[in-house]
Design goal:
4 helices; Emc6; ER membrane protein complex subunit 6; two-stranded antiparallel sheet; transmembrane; transmembrane helix; membrane
């Protein structure tokens, strides 16, 4: 069963105690894991689609790799927009949507990039 594409609020608001000077935010580990799973699936799917697009367009060398990083930048922006730019309600840091998982979809991108390039441009 595939996870729902709707991000879950990870930040849990607690009642402020009068004797506490510093209060740390509490996050639901289950919701953070669910949100990270959504990001992982999104990045993998868009890596495959981006690889096919780069192969069909005939991108090679640096332009193909640049295409991948532009796609990942757009994915990060889309995730931030999906959370209405309130990242800390869904994740514990900006790193979760910007850096984590970028290399996970890279091999899928290269596989489908070379596959689509060979099918379209060799014959």
């Amino acid at each position: 069963m595939a996870p729902s594409a709707r991000p879950s609020k990870a930040f849990v608001k607690e009642e402020k105690k009068s004797d506490d000077i510093m209060e740390t935010p509490a996050y639901s580990a289950e919701n953070v894991q669910h949100n990270m799973r959504i990001i992982y699936y999104s990045r993998t799917f868009l890596s495959i689609v981006g690889g096919v697009v780069a192969g069909v367009l005939g991108l090679s060398a640096i332009s193909g790799f640049l295409c991948y990083f532009i796609i990942m930048l757009l994915v990060s922006g889309g995730i931030a927009a999906k959370t209405k730019f309130d990242i800390f309600s869904y994740f514990d840091s900006w790193q979760r949507i910007t850096v984590d998982g970028i290399t996970a979809g890279f091999m899928s991108f290269v596989l489908f990039w070379t596959f689509a390039y060979d099918i379209v441009h060799i014959f």
